[in-house]
Amino acid sequence: MSAAAKRAGTATAAGNALGSAPESTAGESAGGARASWHPLLGSVLLGALWVVCLVALREVFVGGAWTAQALSAVGAVVLVSGAALTLRPGRRLAAWAIGVVSGAALLAWALLRDGRLSQWSREPLRLVQETQLAVSEGVPPVELSGALLDVVLSVWFAALALSALLLIGLGRYFASGLIPAVLMLAPVTVTSLRIPGPLLLWTGALLLLLLWVGAPRTVARWRGVGLMSVWLTLVRQF
To answer: Can you tell me where the transmembrane regions are (predicted)?
Structure first.
């Protein structure tokens, strides 16, 4: 009797294991499929946040070349890295490197096209002095051109690379959005002007969406909502 009962128990356990394994695997596959879209969606949200930042910076910097190259850098660094990680999940640093290399190539091409790449290699000190003079004599909004445009674009590119590293390389969705959000405060420190209300609303909405996409659990998402409320309260003081 005991031997028959053991055999029956073993058969039942094996049947349960066989029956539950496909269901678990299917659940994990579905979760992985949903998660694979998160980097692309996160990069789109982060790119939109950088566009809002660019609009806010119009109080400080203007110029057609600046706007075009800044937008191109956003697409190359943020969107390309997000698309690369979506196509090859799991290779975070490689995807981030692809975006950074794309952005650096665009920046180098612009310098080469305008003939300033050779100038920076031959006379870097003179161009640095020109940049310092343009900053000291400029009155916001400053028309960006020449060496000053190169320096501002380089800082813009470095900030893009850092935010993309947080998003793509480390999976820190909310933290990646804080970089353009903080950079939006530059006009406040330079011109003492308040940030327009619509830009604040867009910034808060995009940060909240970044948090929602990147949060692994509902509890963490609602904690992020609380942090967002604190952020908006602080920004309103400006």
So the answer is: 36-57, 64-87, 93-112, 151-175, 195-213
